[in-house]
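Priority: medium. Attachment 1 of 2:
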């Protein structure tokens, strides 16, 4: 909490606290796995995220992408990103890679790329490699990180397991709701029928009592 005798000091310090909080929020990072199934003829995002352990530490990084096609044993260097500039190295990917990672910075944490006009020969293993320099007050520290993505190119899109499960659960819910409504209707019908029978019995009892009273009254009068 920012509590100071002076209002101006209070406002100033709180503003600094707010700026620091915003900076931390802006530097938030979450590592998410890339999709692994692409459709031939369409564009595909190869996701690659490597978060710094401490977001407040200044850093700079370069990124290199490698590709090993199915049936091959060696990785080929296909793309490099350094000093906010990307370079396609492998002619197979010339004009087909767009950088969509961390923008306007050398402190790279997101190294995702778009692979344009995917074809079946793009199936294989992709490797995303970070080379990062962390800058502390009195020294620098070098670190690396690597991600592997197994890409499978399909002729047409297929439904994911989550979509199928969601549809099945929807139908199960509808059937369950209908069964519940049916049970409620039967219960209400039986309750109404029971109440009607009870009313008829009560009415018959009243009628019988009234007849008996009338008969007794007539005999007494006579």
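Attachment 2 of 2:
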């Amino acid at each position: 909490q920012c509590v100071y005798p002076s209002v101006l000091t209070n406002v100033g310090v709180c503003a600094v606290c707010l700026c620091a909080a915003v900076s931390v929020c802006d530097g938030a990072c979450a590592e998410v796995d890339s999709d692994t199934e692409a459709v031939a003829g369409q564009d595909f995002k190869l996701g690659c995220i490597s978060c710094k352990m401490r977001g407040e530490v200044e850093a700079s990084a370069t990124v290199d992408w490698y590709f090993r096609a199915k049936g091959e044993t060696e990785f080929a260097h296909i793309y490099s990103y350094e000093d906010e500039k990307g370079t396609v190295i492998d002619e197979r990917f010339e004009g087909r890679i767009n950088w969509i990672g961390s923008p306007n910075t050398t402190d790279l944490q997101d190294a995702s790329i778009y692979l344009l006009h995917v074809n079946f020969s793009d199936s294989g293993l992709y490797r995303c490699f970070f080379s990062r320099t962390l800058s502390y007050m009195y020294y620098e520290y070098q670190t690396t990180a690597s991600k592997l993505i197994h890409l499978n190119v399909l002729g047409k899109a297929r439904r994911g397991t989550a979509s199928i499960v969601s549809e099945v659960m929807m139908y199960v819910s509808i059937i369950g709701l209908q069964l519940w409504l049916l049970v409620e209707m039967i219960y209400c019908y039986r309750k109404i029928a029971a109440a009607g029978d009870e009313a008829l019995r009560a009415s018959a009892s009243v009628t019988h009592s009234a007849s008996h009273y009338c008969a007794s009254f007539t005999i007494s009068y006579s």
